[in-house]
């Protein structure tokens, strides 16, 4: 499956779009937002509290994530709730965190048996 996708994507616009996704996810606050939204739908204020940023700043990040079709919004009265559109952004973030563990730890947590944790 991946070999077919790799060959088809090498010369396609998907490579350029994938680079944009990585660029979009290169911000620590956006990574924290994606991780927070894995637990489910949250309002801007709940996200702001969870990621330790002002609601206005979180709104700016959410606008970019909406533009990139990473998150979606649902309005209920005067409140807007955000959720991930699909699991792919979360998977990318987790893979990046696993890679970061390799930089920090000789024996990364994700490679240790459950009994050791």
Topology (SSEs and partners):
Blueprint: H1 2-9, H2 13-24, H3 28-37, E1 42-43, H4 44-51, H5 55-67, E2 71-76, E3 79-84, H6 88-104
Helix pairs in contact: 4-5
Describe it.
- With 117 residues, this protein is mainly alpha-helical.
- It has a single domain, classed as Arc Repressor Mutant, subunit A (Orthogonal Bundle), CATH 1.10.10.
- 58% of the residues lie in helices and 12% in strands.
- It contains six helices and three strands.
- 12% of the residues are buried.
Q: Which residues sit in consecutive blocks of at least 5 with pLDDT less than 50?
A: none
Content-based structural category = mainly alpha
What is the CATH homology-level superfamily?
Answer: Winged helix-like DNA-binding domain superfamily/Winged helix DNA-binding domain
Q: Name the overall outline.
A: globular
Separation of the first and last Cα atoms: 33 Å
Number of strands: 3
Give the CATH architecture: Orthogonal Bundle
Number of domains: 1
CATH class call: Mainly Alpha
Q: Kindly state the percentage of residues in helix.
A: 55-70%
Please compute the radius of gyration using only Cα atoms. Answer: 17 Å
Beta percentage is 5-15%
Biggest sheet statistics = 3 strands, antiparallel
Arrangement of strands in the largest sheet: 1-3-2
The run of helices and strands is: HHHEHHEEH
Number of helices: 6
Mean pLDDT: 88
Q: At the third CATH level, what is the topology name? A: Arc Repressor Mutant, subunit A
Kindly list the characteristics that best describe this protein.
single chain; 117 residues; mainly alpha; Arc Repressor Mutant, subunit A; 3 strands
